[in-house]
Amino acid sequence: MRDGITRRRWGLKGRLVLLTLVVGTVPLLLGIGMAYFQGTRELQVVIGSSFTGLATETARKLDLVFGDDLTRLRRLAADPVLVDALERQALVARGLPAPMMGGLQEGERRWEARDPSLVRSVTTGPLADALRRLADGETDPSSNAVPRAVTRALFLTDAMGRLVASINHDVRYAHGDEAWWQRTYNGGRGGQAAPGDALFDRQFGTYTVSLAVPVMDARRGRVVGVLRRVFDAKAYLDPFLAPIRFGRTGHVMLIDGDGTVMSCPILPTGARLADRDLVRLVTSPHAGWVKAPSDGHGSRTMSIVGFSPVPVTSRVTQRSTGRGWHTFAWQSSNELFAPTRHLFSWISAFGLVAIGLLGALAYVAASRIVTPIRRLQEGAVLIGRNELKQPIAVRTGDEIEQLADEINRMNARLQQAFSGLAHTVEEKTQEVRSLREYNEKILDSMPNPILILDGNLVEYVNQAAKQAFGWSDDAVRGVQVMELLRTDEASSDRLRRELWTQSVSMDRPRDGDGLAAGPSRSLRDPLAPQPAATNPAQRELRIGDAIYRYEVFDISIPSTGARRIGLVLRDTTGESRLQDQLIQTEKLEGLGVLTSGIGHELNNPLLGILGLGEAIRDASDAAQMREHATAIIERAMHMAGIIRDFAGSAQPEVSESRTDVDVNERLDHALKVVGLTNEVAGLAVRKHYHPVPRIRAAPDEIGQVFVSVITNAIQAMKGKGAIDLTTDASRKTITVSIRDSGPGIPNAYLSKIFDPFFTTKPPGQGTGLGLTIARRLVMKYGGRIRVETVEGAGTAFILTFPVSLPAPE
């Protein structure tokens, strides 16, 4: 017990420490989490803003560089030397006949064959020198012109796209069919400057960026040529982007609107960013930053990207190529989020230290609380054993000390109360033992076998059961009840189901009196024989040659709350045999009544037939003989009717087709049938019909029932009086009432009116089978017929039928 106390006390201390940690840690973690979240968010905003500034500044710088180069190219295109030279060439070309001008194909053939005269005319002279001065940066010494090595080609074409001047040989001769030339020439009207995206140029074997401007004749307002400069994309753009580095991986790159890399320290020029969502985010028309799902450099981790369009250049390239240029500031995720991870590490370390300190303080506080409680617990255990001799000493100065004082006072009072408790317990124990022996003696005195079951296991059998089945206590206790009651399979299954049902009903919630909630079997004496109407043969067990009726009931033990099932067996072997004899006797008595009735009914017409037969034998008058023969035929038909009625009462009907029958209509038809006789003269018929559903039956048989009851009422009133016909219906049944104002039926006759051949009419006026057949037909269709009568005030026959169809509207 001491070990159990020790284990529990540490459990209380642990719960106190855990509760303190939870109460302190949850706000701490929430505060740390919010601080980390807010710090990370602000750090991301600072990084994103910095990246946006880098991208915007780089875009502005590229705009300046690109604008300078475009300005120098336009200044050269406006040089009067170039314009005059191209104009003179155009005049000469217009004045010469076509065969002397030479075609594009001839010029292209000579250029590809490196014709010395053609090459010399293109690469030397004033025009070529002007192009070289532009490539060398001599046109504007004060500007930051790009080195000549960056320029891969610089050439001039005439208004037909033919090469006029060039600083190198690595260009085509004819350019009139190229898209950049057509956009710049614009049908002789001159278009905007036509810069191009970074495209791979097979002629130079590298990615290039080009600028093309029209050469305009200001006097005539038409294009006389096109000037184009082709740059090595990487060599042209890297000097402006590569120096912009931050950290180990941070840099700025340039892409076009489709995500094609134009310049990047890591990715090759001409590569395309695979993440189309990232391309959509960073090619916005406005500068900004975004937390992208990938970094565009092969990693799928989240990254912060700053971006900006190249404003002036993008407007030009958007008109010429349909795509703008955009700068893109990026840094690897590992390096980018290193400050965030560092912040998280510091916050986590601080949180762990705070939790450890909180746990130590909680342990100290829990110890100060648990130690006096442990003393109280030990004292309570000693009180339970009646071993506490010294008062519990707790000096905390709070409610725990007050509790210790109360426990000490309670112990003193318990010592006084327990002084006589042992004697009282012994007396109560003896009373319980005596009560149990008393109950067992009562059960052993019962003449019927009684079994007490715990579920399906036998717990107790009385003396009568031991004597009846030869059982002993050791042989039956704890055995399945069905193993002891060796009965047939059908009876065994019924008893097993009933025991299971009783067990389920015992498990239902009980009310304040200990009775099961819900429907249950009405209480009665289980040893008293049941009435025949409520004692079905299904509650019988055949054990050996004996027949037992059984009853199942539940037993409640208030002291323990336990539930048991009682099983009472009553030997009904003698009763069953006596009942069989009584049934046989009743059958013989009924057969005697039936035989005497048939003999009485047939005797009178048979004697008349014999008398008429003797009269015919002695008669000589033919007319008298015919009259006697007619009388014989009438009596024979009467005998045939008696036999037919008897056959209809004693034999089952031949099945006939059923249909939906309207009882109101059948009542009217029955009235017409009985109205054919003279007995209804002076009879008042009152109808009280209501709309009723139909029944499924044979119409003639329902009509026969009504005719028999109405005829019986008319005969009782001797054709004078009133008869009331009433129909009504409920949800499940149809009720037909036929009430007469006759003398009523004497009480002595009420139990016999439906017996075969019972009649109060004189001989020859009735067979006594009408009401018998009527009741049989009503019961055939699931109905009932009952009689209400008051002597001197009339009789009512009430018939009920089950509903087959909905009631008519």
Overall form:
elongated
Give the termini separation. 83 Å
Return Rg in Å: 62 Å
Low-confidence stretches: 1-9, 95-102, 138-143, 511-524, 526-537, 649-655
Mean pLDDT metric: 75
| Secondary structure: helix percent | 40-55%
Class computed from helices, strands and strand pairing: alpha+beta
Measured by DSSP, the beta-strand proportion falls in: 15-25%
In total, the number of strands is 23
Tally of helical runs: 24
Task: Summarize the main sheet.
Answer: 6 strands, antiparallel
Give a structural overview.
The chain has 809 residues and is of the alpha+beta class. It has 24 helices and 23 strands. The strands form 5 sheets. Strands 6, 7, 8, 9, 10 and 11 form a 6-stranded antiparallel β-sheet that branches. The longest helix is centred in the N-terminal third of the chain and has 76 residues. It is elongated. 26% of the residues are buried.
